[in-house]
Amino acid sequence: MQDEEFGKKVRHPSRSGCSIGRGTPAGAARADPLSRVRSLTSRLRPRSLRLATLCVLTLLTSGGCASFPRDQMGVCLPSAAEAHRPERGDATISVLTYNVEGLPWPIRKKRGTRLREIVSQLAALRSAGRAPDIVLLQEAFSGDASRIGSRSGYPYFVRGPSTHMRRAPTSAAAARQLVTRRNRTKGEGLRRFLPSGLYILSDHPIVDTDRKPFRKRECAGYDCLANKGILYARILLKGVPQPLELFDTHLNSRGAAGVSAQRSLLAHQLQVEELMSFIEQRRSPDYPMIFGGDFNMRNAPDRFETFATRKSWPLVHEWCVARENVCDVQLSWDGDQPWMDTQDLQGFASGKLVQVSPIRLEAMFDVPWRGAPLSDHDGLLVTYRLSWQRGSGDALSRCDAPVPDVDPGLIGAP
After folding, report:
1. 214 lies in a domain?
2. Could you say which of 163, 166, 259, 349 would form a disulfide bridge with 263 (CB–CB 3.0 to 4.6 Å)?
3. What whole-number distance in Å separates Cα of residue 28 and Cα of residue 26?
4. CB contact set of 251 (below 8 Å; sequence gap of 6+)
5. Cα 313 to chain centroid, rounded
6. Helix H or strand E segment including 272
7. 330 in a domain, yes or no?
């Protein structure tokens, strides 16, 4: 429970990944989805198993109505203690980035049991006081995946772009072959059937949030079926003189996209540019910042080259390789470029007053459960030290206003 002098919880409107079918009043009974699947597929001649899966997914997501947990944020309240901050201090904060493989049936089968086990393990860690302070989730598409935060006990959480959130027009930089030659059998040129799958969970009050889907047509292959993008949150850490800003993202896949490596590379490069532009425009350079997610750059030098050229902030892996004496690495690294061996990365930047330094790097959820992994990704857990000196500022006493009680993800929903 949050200190009443520091923050209180506020809820934002319920978010639905879809709307009730046309002509169906709220609360009315709907036809059994499986019977509708059988009815449709009996008339189809799918060209491939992938296309058949797409057809079923289209039916389920357009005919059903999956609900998602509401954003739960905090409102900062004035505190007399704010006038007596120490001139110098430090704190630690742990951040987990985790692709939970929360893809719905029929893309993945029997995922519910393992997603609920993730909840159980997080809840147990929270009871023991050892859970991450902040969690950045990717692929939290299904109902079980979207409720990991609320069910495991995190008091504050926000989610990324919804299925129907409007996308910005295609940029002038987009390659013509990516924009004009859309492959509908690979999921391109169709409407979005899934949200972004992004969530930020926090033990500390979230006082501001924003989200942005990637631009129209700037995706490749089956990735285009989800409204992937970027999620931002600003949190308040009690006793720390400045807020911490967070960014979560999931970039275009390679082989799983079902298209050529060159085509998926073009989409990935555009998304890297949009990610970096969004961070530069949305963050305050005065505040410390941490970003993370599934960057889909493992063993892909061409992808990483674009990313490395465009980014302005260090990756934790890069920072720790150069500072082995101050960064406790509990991962098995091969070679001198360990950031090329993983999809899951974190980066950071210090603020004007608060310095950010990674001090520990380790895996989470890497132990098989009932003979198999909980996800096709391990979690990446980074512990950071936040430190500050004289001139602590007034960021907390100013109390940033919470997001208005309107869901930007529903703007433009049909």
Report:
1. yes
2. 259
3. 6
4. 228, 268, 271, 272, 275, 293, 294, 295, 296, 297
5. 19
6. helix 261-282
7. yes
C-beta of residue 393 within 8 angstroms of C-beta of residue 242: yes
According to DSSP, residue 131 is labeled S
Peptide bond into 106 cis (omega under 30): yes
Nearest to 7 by CA among 245, 288, 207: 207
Beta carbons of 144 and 189 less than 8 angstroms apart:
no
Task: Give me the number of domains the chain comprises.
Answer: 1
- State CA 99 to chain mean position distance: 8
CA distance linking residue 363 with residue 358, whole number of Å: 14
- The torsion of the CA quartet 184, 186, 187, 190, rounded to 10 degrees, works out to 0
* Structural domain of 337: 7-17+66-410
> Which tokens belong to 404?
């208005």
168 DSSP assignment: P
Residue with tokens 């997603």: 115
* Closest to 401 measured CA to CA, from 212, 243, 261, 264: 243
The SS3 call for residue 308 is helix
Nearest Cα neighbor of 292 from 352, 365, 334, 233 is 233
Name the nearest CA neighbour of 288 among 241, 336, 244, 338: 244
As given in the structure block, the two tokens for residue 282 are: 């949305």
For residue range 345-378, what is the model confidence (pLDDT) as tens digits? Answer: 999 999 999 999 999 999 999 999 999 999 999 9
Flag whether 264 is in a domain.
yes
Give the type of residue at 405: D
3-state helix, strand, coil in the chain (%, to 5): 30, 25, 45
Residue given tokens 């465009």 in the structure block: 310
58 in a structural domain: no
Q: Taking each helix axis as running N to C, give the angle between helix 261-282 and helix 301-310, from 0 to 180 degrees, rounded to the nearest 10.
A: 20
Look up tokens 């993730």; give the residue.
Answer: 118
